[in-house]
Protein: L-seryl-tRNA(Sec) selenium transferase
Amino acid sequence: MKQMLRHLPAIHELQQDQRFAKLEEKWSKAKATEWVQEAVAELRKELLEETWVQSNDIIDFVDEIFMRVSERLSEHSMKRLQRVINGTGTVLHTNLGRARLGERATLQVAQTAQSYSNLEYNLIEGKRGSRHDLIEGIVKEITGAEAAMVVNNNAAAVYLILKALAKEKEVIVSRGELVEIGGSFRVSSIMEESGAHLIEVGTTNKTHQSDYEQAINENTAMIMKVHTSNFKIIGFTKEIPASELKHVTEQHKVILYEDLGSGAIYDLRQDGIGNEPTVSEALMHADIVSFSGDKLLGGPQVGMIAGKKDLIDKLKKHQLARVLRVDKMTLAALEATLSEYRDLDKAKTTIPTLKAILLTKEEVRARIALFKPKIPASFLSEIIDGTSQVGGGTMPEVELDTCLLKLNHQSIKSHEIQEQLRKGSPAVVGRIQEDALLFDFRTIDEAEFADLEARLQEFAN
Structure:
């Protein structure tokens, strides 16, 4: 195979090929040459290592090289961030972008992106304004907070609060709440970076009110409550809710801060789902709270901060507020999403996250039944019982009863179909169990039926 190296064409010869001319016309000579050089180098390496496998439809090295250039061109043109049909049943799938935006939010983002906006301009007074003002009013309206602001995610919110309100001061946290979230991101590490000093109290499973009281001294800035959205400790446990810590912090004149994590505006407990406190409920006790925008809120990725006006004002004036601020499109999506909560009954149908979580098993079954006639005859299909997850580190103990579409192809293995579905456009992601493809239609809308059908038709015999 090494002897074939002498037959590799020179770059200048490849540049005379009509296929190179087409590449040069569409892109540039420099870019076309770069792709050809990469393909030749790759082929030379395979020949030296004797790993090259000749394709049946390749006549010579020139064809091989331009075939590889064509593959590179396809990869170069492909969007890196792509639409995915989520058939996993995990509503807030972190790897698939968490919350989907509703129609109102999507439209407002498009309108804001396509035109100028009053991002930092007060239209009433005709002078410079603040982007903080754009969402503060509606957050106050739907949560009862005195003031509010937004940063780029909840980890940033935690960092800003600790940096601005507790730098070089002590912050008391229960050991049972020192959580680690995705990507080895720990609350204790954020606190260390902020300059606040962590004071751990209690044990992993039990923390008493006296533990907090005994830890308070003249250098204490706040007590921090961390809602453990991504795990649950069961059995012999005890924790002190913010409602019981309020009089402790008031007596000692320290801040009571609650990091809610998921940040529910709509109370899912009334539908028998989970035990997540609402933001309004937390604000009845805590001086300041923070939560995510792309979890139970059902909006874009942001970190929401709400609470007492004097504390929020300090955060707005801190230099980090500019570093952590969000852009106009994020604010547009957030404002539109928050506006839906002015009518909670309507929000259940207009916010995709809430709608998906609240779907009954029978409603999911009805979706599958509607799609079933579109399945190619090469698949054997049936509807089976299953469970969905809320996801996104939210309510890990909650399983939502659902129905699954089970598919088995007559001749192609399920893992091969799964791989091809994942790599095509739009990408389709589901589950595999006992060599069968499973799709949970809790997270597949009717608007996606045509695309899903087209992808399955690729396997029609």
About this structure: The CA atoms of residues 175 and 204 lie 5 Å apart. Residues 84-93+356-459 form a domain with the Aspartate Aminotransferase, domain 1 fold (CATH 3.90.1150.180). The mean pLDDT is 91.
